[in-house]
Design a protein that fits this description.
Layout lengths: L4 E5 L3 H10 L5 E5 L2 H10 L4 E4 L8 H10 L8 E5 L4 H9 L4 E4 L4 H26 L9 H18 L3 E8 L2 H8 L1 H17 L7 E6 L2 E7 L3 H18 L14 E7 L5 H4 L4 H18 L5 E2 L1
Parallel strand pairs: 1-2, 1-3, 3-4, 4-5, 9-10
Antiparallel strand pairs: 6-8, 6-9, 7-8
Helix pairs in contact: 1-5, 2-3, 7-8, 8-9
The structure holds 3'-deoxy-guanosine-5'-triphosphate and magnesium ion (3 copies).
The site of one magnesium ion has 5 residues, from strand 6.
């Protein structure tokens, strides 16, 4: 389990010292003595929890909280207000801004520590659930849900940036026969090995490889034109040769292979290229290309 990161924001050195003692052993503690420093720090490193003073020179704790909540990068980071203003109105303001808790600085250190631990536990559970909801359990790749969401955001980015967006659909050849011959557990292992082989040749951090279902994978290539996507497709096909997993029931080849359908935004009809819903057309184009690759003998790609 990785250590939790707690960011403490307070202009008063005595408060910081007291919190250091109260929270010893709860995680890695970082400190900021004013709001703008805290906002700079979270951009470099997103913490698991923020303990936030309210009265500070410059940005107030409320303003810092508002900024954290408004930034997608930090919107899910729990904020606890820790303040000497022990006042019901202030508490209501803090919690209304989205803070998860409001603790008076006069509170006993074990109480502060217990509440911090509770919020760290909830944060960890939240992170685990979020990961599980976007991950394919068999292969560890992104799942269909994450792929669909990313496709929509990347499509909108492509509309704004006018940069090309490419999509590859990859489907294992004669996988039913492989399952029938070797059994379902071996089929699952083949899916894991295929996922790793595909992953190993996906080089850019912005690319997204996902298992879309069954023996079908999707690869989203932002900022990539047809020629670039063809280059990636060739590498993906070579990865099957490197894997060299005996098939045993494929009518055409000795080893497991896959076919690829390629689509690029630049090839769509003009009206679809500029359409906010154009990502559906991109998926359909990749699907049609995959069908063509299957028809022309498999273990190849089609555009
Ligand atoms: P093609 O070359 O035309 O793609 O033929 P294919 O046999 O690969 O395609 P088809 O769609 O007929 O069969 C896909 C098979 O994938 C059927 C199913 O048994 C298998 N399958 C789907 N999901 C899983 C899975 O999670 N694990 C395993 N082991 N097999 C799966
Ligand atoms: Mg203060
Ligand atoms: Mg198949
Ligand atoms: Mg299939």
């Amino acid at each position: 389990m990785t250590e939790a990161e707690i960011l403490i924001v307070d202009d008063d050195p005595a408060s910081i010292t007291a919190l250091k003692t109260a929270l010893a052993g709860q995680g890695r503690l970082r400190f900021a003595t004013h709001g703008s420093e805290a906002l700079r720090m979270v951009q470099r490193h997103v913490p698991d929890l923020v303990l936030l003073d309210i009265g500070m020179p410059g940005l107030s704790g409320y303003e810092v909280c508002r900024a954290l909540q408004g930034d997608p990068l930090t919107a899910d980071v729990p904020v606890i207000f820790l303040t000497s203003h022990d006042d019901a109105e202030e508490e209501l303001t803090g919690l209304s801004l989205g803070a998860v808790d409001f603790i008076a600085k006069q509170a006993r250190p074990p109480l502060i520590c217990a509440r911090v631990r509770t919020h760290l536990r909830l944060k960890r559970m939240n992170d685990d659930l979020r990961r599980a909801a976007s991950e394919d359990a068999l292969t560890g790749l992104a799942n269909r849900r994450r792929f669909d969401e990313t496709l929509v955001t990347e499509w909108l980015r492509h509309l704004r940036s006018q940069r090309p967006l490419s999509l590859l659909m990859i489907d294992i050849d004669h996988f039913k026969a492989y399952n029938d011959l070797h059994g379902h557990p071996a089929g699952d292992q083949c899916l894991r090995l295929t996922a790793r082989a595909l992953h190993n040749v996906t080089l850019r951090p912005a690319d997204l490889l996902a298992r879309l279902g069954g023996e079908e994978f999707g690869l989203l290539l932002p900022d990539t034109d047809v020629a670039g996507a063809q280059e990636v497709a060739r590498r993906l096909l070579l990865a099957a040769d490197t894997l060299a997993l005996p098939h045993g029931a494929c009518p055409d080849r000795a080893c497991v292979s896959w076919s690829i359908g390629l689509a690029c935004s630049t090839q769509l009809r003009q009206d679809l290229q500029a359409n906010p819903q154009g990502s559906h057309a991109l998926m359909e184009a990749a699907d049609r290309a995959l069908y063509d690759a299957k028809r022309s003998g498999r273990a190849c790609f089609a555009v």
